[in-house]
Amino acid sequence: MQDNYGGGVTIDLEDSTGGVSASGLDLLAALANYSPSDPPITASRLAALTGRDRGVVSRVIDDLLELGFVERDPDERALRLGWGLYAAAVQVVELRVVSRGQQLVERLAAQCGESTYLVRRRGTQSLTVAEAMPRASVRGVSWLGRSQPVARGDAGPVLLMDLSRAELRALLGGGKLPPSTGINAPRSIEELEREIAKARATGVCVLMEHVEAGVASVGAPVMDFRQRVVGAVVVVGPSTRVSSSLATLVDAVREGADELSRSLGSDLQLAGGEA
Length: 275
Hints:
Blueprint: E1 2-5, E2 9-12, H1 22-32, H2 43-50, H3 54-67, E3 70-72, E4 79-81, H4 83-112, E5 115-122, E6 125-132, E7 147-149, H5 156-159, H6 165-172, H7 189-202, E8 205-208, E9 215-223, E10 229-238, H8 239-244, H9 246-263
Antiparallel strand pairs: 1-2, 3-4, 5-6, 5-10, 6-7, 8-9, 9-10
Helix pairs in contact: 1-2, 2-3, 4-9
């Protein structure tokens, strides 16, 4: 079952580990649809809204209060969604990014005929958390579980696109970028900022020989219910082959990343950015 959090976020709570019953989900859904202009929602009102027995509702509310999914105003006895629900939603995201991400990269590798990765940012590093190779390829070195400087990876501009300029410079130290063997790799933070701005404007990032000679990539962001970038789907292959099928790869990568984002509750509107 899906619930709204904060009047606009939709995310499936069945994956959470809180052990919430169907009754609990019904109550959470009713609270999520509450408007400040409505009368305060009490246990009695929740019972009426959901058509459930008042005693059952009271017991479920006690469970939700204990989990932190619901909070109660001590004066009005009014109920509202609690921060514990937000934390559970974040946990769902963490579980789904990898589990559904692995399924996605396997499908894209077969569809595109190129190596496909799901990459996440960990501070100044980008970490590969899922990968898949097309059946016809000769398997090379695996990147699974390996990291590299985020400013130098195929997913770099995508993973950094929801950071403001100040946040980016604070993250990278405002100095020189790490060395790179890529022919077209950015040589300064200013050049990297231009790549990020282009990725932000188009929703995808195409890098030709940025990481190494003869290799190109197409990447797109994965966003969660907070509209923050939590990963990047990246297809990597020989630059000549990527160039010849670029439009098809861009569409496939964008659609795949959007699909994963929607499963994490995103409305595909990027939060944060340039300012």
